[in-house]
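Handout, section 4.2: multi-component inputs.
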Amino acid sequence: MAWDLTSLRDRIERWNGSSIEEDLSRYQPGLSQIGQLETEMRNLEDFALRERSSDLRRRARADEAEPEFVVEAFALVREASRRALEMRPFDVQVLAGLALHEGHLVEMATGEGKTLAAVMPAYLAGLSGKGVHVLTFNDYLARRDAEWMGPIYRFLGSSVGWVEEGMSVRDRRAAYACDVTYVTAKEAGFDLLREHLAREPEEIVHRPFHFAIVDEADSILIDEARVPLVIAGRAADAGLPDASAVGIAELVHGLERGRDWATDEYERNVELTDDGIARVESLIDRGNLLSSANLELLTEINCALHATHLLHRDVDYIVREGRIRLVDEFTGRVVEDRHWPDGLQAALEAKEKLERRPGGRILSSITLQDYLRLYPRLSGMTATARPAAGELKSCYGLDVVVIPPNRPSIRLDELDHVFTHRAAKHAALVAEIARVHEQGRPILVGTASVEESEELVGLLREVGVHCQVLNARNDAKEATIVAEAGALGAVTISTNMAGRGTDIKLGGAAEQDHEAVVDLGGLCVIGTNRHESLRIDQQLRGRAGRQGDPGTSRFFVSLEDPLIVRYGVNDLIPAKIYPRPQQEALENPFIRHEIARAQRIIEGQNAEIRNTLNHYSKLLEEQRRAVYRERRTWLERRAPGRLRERSSERYQSLAKDLGEDYLAEAERRIVLFHLDRAWSRHLARAADIREGIHLRKIGGDDPLVEFTRAVADSFREMRLEVESEIVKTFESIEARAGGVDLEALGLAGPTSTWTYLVNDDPFRDQLATALGGNVGVGVAAAALAGPFWIASTAYQYFRRRRRQPSR
Ligand code: ADP
Ligand code: MG
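Output:
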């Protein structure tokens, strides 16, 4: 049952003095006051409750001292939730709500009811009339949560909306105009990018940002943080097939492993050997492959090598309807509108013999991290925050507040089974799944890739075990399947986090066999791999044992797993005790310990890379804000601006013929056009600078200082360019009978735009390898929004030149 206050207070006291914020005593007074209002609220008629809500709204809008309204607002939501949804927020949910309200990162276990907890602070912040975004993990959840929680908001007279991919501008604007809006960070970020290309104020869908509550926060704030959201545009004539990529794919296909090209021992990086370089030079008549004239060609060859040998169909991408679709490394899910950067995408299309999709010009981009930092108030919730506490603090200024479960967790997290080789691990997995399945106990198996899922399904079929597979195709459908993962006899195989956000109830979604499954020991979670991030492993474990349910979790690991091999964990095990291949699980605790240690090291490295990237993007973000502020004033401007001063003679003569209003409109469009174009160019220049920087690092300079100086210069240049181009365009205006034809002046925007995400993860490793011990991880910043392999090509080029100065 729900905790009573005394036992909660007991536990609160016991947590005092622990390292992360587990001390909840600060919230105790608020919690008590909300509790004291409960009887009063319960005795009110529905209409009276609504009246109190509108009264609160009036007061909230009149003076903005939100804290005064916290107790009343939370008590109203608690009662409204009880009436509208028959769920009375537990004390722990109220605590979580209070922490969210204060802008913290709340850790609360899976199944504890974060969705409802967020309604309290969201309702309260929405009263201000300034809008609140609840940022969900995917589109399906945006809609589900808005519809699920909608009755509470509406009961209290607040409006709620949701946004999903493909929605019209009108519907989006309506959704953002609501008091509370459920939307993914990705969609909200794309809307921001789109509105920065707006020609008219009506195209703007967002209101000024106010407050965001991020669900599955570690995934968005940490794992996906570096993913750039990109908006690209195409002029009408782009899109010719890329003949060179096809030729290069064939060329690379004819090269031999070991002789012409080699990967590093962890298959993270691939490059031509000296023999391979000589061979390519003899096959194509372009002279010295390492001359600077051939840098682009070398880059294309590297892309082709990477596409051919390091990216695997059905692991890293799938081909559907004649298109490459990327599989997200973290979720294992197919991501519809995510691309690799152009060069690699082209190489992949050539490898798969697909029609080349036209590339486009990047008009603007922003990383999710930078997007999220635009909210003046930010808070978040997730089941796994503690391991990332340091980064959440340093990067977003968020403190982690740990909320205890409503009922203590009794899940058993068992020690990993470690095997020497893959085959032994798989045999043991199949035997264990078959054994547990025979009892009728439900099993959820978490795999690392689509390929592994398929393999396991095949093996299980051989022993007569039928299972459901979630390969990340359709969020809504997967949610229905995952919801049944706790049913009697269910075996569900799922890539990482597919179906995240969906509650797994014991005995099935309707809990028809709840008792039977409880008697069997609850949900049995099995992981087939350790992930790079401990948090992802914990997410998987957390699928079992929700709200005090019984359950177990265990990982099966082999010394041939990608994590172990790619990161060289083997090397940490002394040769003395390195085991010989055997069928049974290893008993040595030392090996388990080393795997855990490696995971911590990898996580630390990844955090460091993100931190560096962060430094690199700071200046650009400041510049972005400045440009957008200026753009916004021009967008909404209806009066003449500075043309009069910029070019006064011309202005006087045109004003005579055309009128001041007309010139104001012309100026507005001219400025917008040139600002946008210059910004796009500046971003491209910044990407180039990042790539060049790392060569300079080899020369001993501090890359960040160099980068900052160069980007600041580029920005100054950009401002000057904009000024002179505006004047130039203005001077070229001819006053004709019909006025001015702006399109004829070449001021039309791009004919079409599209948005996508760039997942640069595949190259992070490559860069790390390329840079090896020579330079610090710091230069991984080259990855920010740009193609890693170019950096790696440049490095390769540089290194070989050094080694063979005569070539
Ligand atoms: P989380 O996001 O923390 O994993 P959810 O918000 O999906 O959890 O909620 C998990 C389950 O708990 C849902 O089935 C929901 O109906 C139930 N639940 C949440 N809060 C309450 C409550 N106060 N009373 C009863 N059931 C609740
Ligand atoms: Mg949830």
